[in-house]
Every structure is written in structure tokens, then in C-alpha cells.
Design brief:
The chain is α+β, with helices and mostly antiparallel strands. It is 30% helix and 12% strand.
Length: 254
């Protein structure tokens, strides 16, 4: 979208004004609308587990799906993850996953998987031992660094990272949601995960701390989460209107 078609405000807006304006624009214009925080599996929306069952379900999930290091597998990618290990109980990654499993939306995912162990056979959650700063997932695995998330803001866009929303995002790349395995995830796959999984969680948390994520950069191109526009290299959005892509050093950059 051309920034020249957007009227600039005639009065000075506070940071709260700007934040509320961006969120309002997102809710009104994001393609596909705002979905539920509960993922849809096989056409059905997941439901949260009973509060009394969440600890039990998490323990079963850990026993069945947390990698125990016994199968001798190496990493499924050739980047800087290193050899995967099991999540250590003392790691922030383990603690984040435990908090995720205690939420309504996370408990629904955990309940679905522990209730269908044969269906999700082969899936694992692992700890990355390389230098990659955040999470990554594929059809059969979610990889989290031990100090997840090791950065507090996205390098592109500068928005604050919400660890539980990232875990939900990564599940959208796995066999839980995807019908078949593919070799690589495209930027459109990432766009879908941000729109359908990550941003609903960010909006639910809200509280002035988390706005929707407005851009995703995959190392080559940037996609605008609202419009779906894809541009080469790194871009962020205008602080006035997150539909507008601007360079990182632009005077109106978020």
C-alpha cells in the first residue's frame, strides 16, 4: 500500500493512541478475519481441557512427546541448530511449555495429542543446542532453544516476542494441523501461522504489551500479515497504519 494515500493525523498522537489505532486497523482489515485461539483439527475446533486434568495431561505429553535422546536422531535441518536433546527441566523452554499447557488454548492442543497417541506417533518436542535464537518447527518436530525465547523482540519489525504465542505458531507447522509433510515451509505458510495461531494469542493477552504481529521476515522476503503483500528483503510497517510497509530506518517505522 502506498503511504501517500494515508492521511497523517492532524494532532499529535500518544503511543497508546497509535497502538490502539494499529490494533483497530488490524482487526478491521486482516484478510480472513480474527480466528479463535483454539486451533481447528480435521474441521473441528479444539476445546480446552478441564483445569483438573491439565497437569496430568502435560505429564503424559512429556512422557510421550518430549524427546528423550534415545533414538540417536540428528537434527532435521542443516543450519545452526546443532544436535537436538531433550528439554531440560530447568530450561526456560520447558517452563514456557508448561505454562502453555496450562492455558485454555494450550491445554486443548495437549489434550488432543495425548488423547490420540497413535495418530501423532513420531512427533517430538526437542531442545536445540545450536545458536539459533528462537523456535523452529516442521511436520514431526518442534525445536526450542534452552533459553527460549533468547531474544525479546523480533529483529524485523521490532515487536515484543510472546513465548506462548510462538509455541502455538510452531504447532501450526506440525502434523497437528498440516495434512502432509513437505520439504520446506514457505513464507505463505508462515503468514498462515501468524494469522491463524500466533496473533489470536497475542490479541488475547493484550494488556498493552502485545499487539498483533504485523510482518514476518524469512531471511529473504517480508510479508505483511494484514494484506499478504510480499516484498524482497527486510521491511517493517508504518506506526500509523500497519498495512503500509516501510524500510526499517523510515521516519514513520514502527
Amino acid at each position: 500500500m502506498d503511504s501517500s494515500v494515508i492521511d497523517k493525523p492532524t494532532r499529535k498522537l500518544t503511543q497508546i493512541d497509535l497502538r490502539n489505532q494499529r490494533i483497530s486497523i488490524y482487526k478491521k482489515h486482516v484478510l480472513g478475519g480474527i480466528p479463535s485461539v483454539f486451533l481447528r483439527i480435521d474441521g473441528k475446533q479444539l476445546k480446552p481441557a478441564l483445569m483438573t486434568n491439565r497437569d496430568k495431561n502435560f505429564k503424559l505429553f512429556v512422557s510421550k512427546f518430549f524427546y528423550n535422546g534415545k533414538d540417536g536422531s540428528t537434527d532435521v535441518w542443516s543450519d545452526n541448530f546443532g544436535l537436538p536433546t531433550g528439554l531440560k527441566l530447568t530450561s526456560t523452554a520447558y517452563k514456557a511449555f508448561f505454562r502453555y499447557a496450562k492455558t485454555d488454548y494450550g491445554s486443548a492442543v495437549v489434550k488432543e495429542m495425548v488423547s490420540n497417541l497413535e495418530k501423532y506417533k513420531g512427533f517430538s518436542v526437542r531442545q536445540a543446542t545450536g545458536t539459533r535464537p528462537t523456535a523452529k518447527a516442521d511436520y514431526l518436530v518442534i525445536l526450542l532453544p534452552s533459553n527460549f525465547p533468547s531474544i525479546t523482540r523480533f529483529p524485523t519489525g521490532g515487536q515484543r516476542i510472546f513465548d506462548l504465542a510462538i509455541i502455538h505458531h510452531e504447532f501450526a507447522h506440525t502434523m497437528l494441523v498440516r495434512s502432509k509433510k513437505s520439504k520446506t515451509l514457505t513464507i505463505k505458510d508462515e503468514l498462515w501461522a501468524v494469522r491463524k495461531a500466533e496473533n489470536p494469542i497475542r490479541l488475547k493477552r493484550g494488556g498493552g504489551r502485545y499487539e498483533p504481529r504485523y510482518v514476518y521476515y524469512n531471511g529473504n522476503s517480508t510479508v505483511n500479515v494484514i494484506t499478504g503483500e510480499i516484498l524482497p528483503l527486510q521491511w517493517t510497517v508504518s506506526k500509523y497504519d500497519p498495512r503500509i510497509m516501510v524500510k526499517l530506518n523510515h521516519k514513520d517505522a514502527l
